[in-house]
Structure formats: structure tokens, C-alpha cells
Amino acid sequence: MSAAVRRRQTDKQIRRLENRLLREHDRVPPSLVHEWVQQAHARLGDAPVQDFVPLLVERAVRASARDFPADSPGMTGTCLSNWARNTARRLLAQHLPRRWAHTEGVARRAEQVARVLAPADQDLLVAAAWLHDIGYAPEVANTGLHSLDGAQYLLRAGVSRRLCGLVAYHSGAAAVAQLLGFADDLAEFEDDRGRLRDALWYCDMTTGPDGHPTTVDDRIAEIHQRRGPDDPVVRALAINLDERLAAVRRTHRLLRRTAA
To answer: Where in the numbering of this chain does the HD domain appear (predicted)?
Structure first.
């Protein structure tokens, strides 16, 4: 077997290994697991015996995961995040179980990522993670733009306008609103640009449709495959993909500091 063929086989094994490690180390932000895999693979990729590279990469990643700090202190649930969780469960769990599974995954990610935020914003992130997709619920859906429908529902419920804005603009929703003709309606809410918004986008863009952790590249590919080229969400990626990736990168850099 040539060295090139062996290298390609090893690369495939590494990709499968990464997917498994992402699921096994669900308490670690996915971008960190991805980075640890890539770093270990780059360091070991020229090893004379390629058969052992996946095993050595796995050991290196597991060692890094063991050293990763536990979830943010104080994230045991406050009145706001508990209300958000219960509201999302009531709206999604029975009618849209897969959407509920995704929501649970995003909320788990938020509890991991909250450490990069100021204490006053940590619970707000978790609450927004629970609520970000309630606009898909039959009880809430109105315009067909789930971020707008969710934000309007929350506004009527008396939730803070800041939380409403996080839901309204999550994961590049402004581009979808533009395509669907709801930009003026979305402008009722404020786009809270900064670490909190970045963190919410990170949580959504690193969680798959079934709630499992994933890389942002795989998440984008999955959206394309599941929705098809004519879907407004897919078309919006052509408008603001760079903005979404930048938010993920900024949050990843902050997370990297906490893992150092």
C-alpha cells in the first residue's frame, strides 16, 4: 500500500474518530474538540507507523478533555432559565420532538459556553438557547419566520426586550427576514451585537438537528442537505455565512482561553 493511500485511510479514520469524540465529550464545546483533534493529527501525522495515529490522537484528545474545566459555576437554573426551559418544552416536546432535541442540545452547549460571558449575561444565554426555536411551534408560528414569531411571542409574554432580540436575530436571521420581506418587522427588536449574541450563534451552529454536538462546517453542510437550495435559510447563507463563521470563531477564541 502506498504512503498516499495509507494517509487517506488515516484521514478517514480521524474524521470518524472526531465524530465519536464529539458525542462522547458532550460537555466540551465542539470547536475545542475539533481543534484538539486537528492539532494532534498534525503533530502525529508524519509518524512512521500510521496504524497507530488514530489511537494516539484519541489519547491526546481525551487528556485535553479531562483537563477541561467543569461547567460554569452557578448554572444550576434560575427563575428565568427554568421558565425558558419549561416554556420551550411545553411548546416543542410533543409537537416537534426533533426540534426539541436540538433545543436541548443548544441549551447544554450554552451551559458550557456561558463561562466566557459576564455573570449577568450567563443565565440570559441559557434562556435564549432554550427559547431560540420556539417560533416553529404550532402555537407560536405566524409569519413563517420562526425567529420573528418566537420574539413576538416572548414580547407578548412580558419577556425582556433584550432576550426577545437575541431570539429575533439568532444565527443570522436578519438575512432570512430580508429574503422573506420581514426586515421591517424584525427591526422592532434590537440586534444585541457582542459576546452574548456570538455565544448564542455558536451554540446553535455547533449543535446538530438531533441535539448532538457537531462542527460548524458539518452543521452548514447538514443545513444545505436537509433544506435544499431554494429554502430561504440556505439562500441566507450566501448573504451572511461569513458573519456566522466569525461569531463562532470569536467565541471559540474565548473558550480556548478558558481551556488553557
So the answer is: 99-175
